[in-house]
Amino acid sequence: MKLSVVLAVYNEEKNLTECLKSVEHIADEIVIVDGGSTDNTVEIAQKFGARVIKTTNPSMFHINKQKALEAAKGDWILHLDADERVTPALVKQIQEAIKGYPIEILDAKKQNLFIRHQKNIETRDGKIGSDKGEVTAYFIPRLNFFLGGYLKHGGVYPDGEIRLVKKGKAYFPCKSVHEQMHIDGRVAWLSEDLIHMADPTFSRYLMRANRYTSLTAKEFEKQHIPKFGISVFMYMFVRPFTTFLSLYFRHKGFLDGFPGFVWAVFSGLHFPLAYMKYWENHDA
């Protein structure tokens, strides 16, 4: 079985080398869809022998991810973000999965976390894949690096994402930043963690938060969220407060120390910031 590793990137020179190093020994091909990078991203990709496809950088970044999926030639596709790292243990499990070996999750606590996480996603977004047939896609749990450590509580872990898919059996609808891939077949889980270096610094976190609040503001506009009355109260006060309480106390974010506190606070602030951007854009 051939494995394609694909990424959609834009100005990722600081991340791309470590990402590609982590997969260069398992990838039969590397496909990079570049959204017009102005740094050394393309040159780095070419050093690893990647096939680079140059295009624009749409705000709906799933569009370029879908282009990368379509360009892949392997039997299986591992699609990553540049700030993700594949560990040796995960490499081994990916190789077993694409060969058709059954993946057993021996840690009961992990298994329950995975089941609960997937149910939460399906409650929000609808059923993912089917209950019968062959496995054509795998969720991979992610360990998120934030303020000097990995977040293991606060509702962050397992942060599972569908990352390993069979060619032709998965696609991005490209309608929402929060959407899940559409899967033709059954979905399973790998148990080894994917390292996610999304926020090595707080400034990086704020930069990403700015991007995601802007995307949420656009979704508010599509949904025609009212700019008055109960909506103001909900998004400016209720949602940030309940989000903080849920992440910090119910999901035990306090066990992650100060980083867990900061994560809970700023996760709650996502809603008023997005709502204020929506308000501003709506009046512009």
Structure description:
This protein is α/β, with parallel strands linked by helices and 284 residues long. It folds into 2 domains: 3-199, Alpha-Beta Complex (Spore Coat Polysaccharide Biosynthesis Protein SpsA, Chain A), CATH 3.90.550; 202-283, no CATH class. The chain is 43% helix and 23% strand. The protein has helices at 16-21, 41-47, 62-71, 88-98, 108-125, 202-223, 230-250, 257-283, and strands spanning 3-9, 29-34, 51-54, 76-80, 84-86, 130-140, 142-146, 149-151, 161-166, 170-171, 182-183, 186-189, 194-199. The strands form 3 sheets. The chain has a 7-stranded mixed sheet with strand order 3-2-1-4-9-6-12, sandwiched between helices. The longest helix has 27 residues, at 257-283. It is globular, with a radius of gyration of 19 Å. The N and C termini lie far apart (53 Å). 36% of the residues are buried.
Write the layout of secondary structure elements.
Layout: E1 3-9, H1 16-21, E2 29-34, H2 41-47, E3 51-54, H3 62-71, E4 76-80, E5 84-86, H4 88-98, H5 108-125, E6 130-140, E7 142-146, E8 149-151, E9 161-166, E10 170-171, E11 182-183, E12 186-189, E13 194-199, H6 202-223, H7 230-250, H8 257-283
Parallel strand pairs: 1-2, 1-4, 2-3, 6-12, 7-13
Antiparallel strand pairs: 4-9, 5-13, 6-9, 7-8, 10-11
Helix pairs in contact: 6-8, 7-8
Search tags:
284 residues, alpha/beta, seven-stranded mixed β-sheet
How would you briefly describe this protein structure?
With 284 residues, the chain is an alpha/beta fold.
* Elements, N to C (H/E): EHEHEHEEHHEEEEEEEEHHH
Mean pLDDT: 94
Strand order of the biggest β-sheet = 3-2-1-4-9-6-12
Number of domains: 2
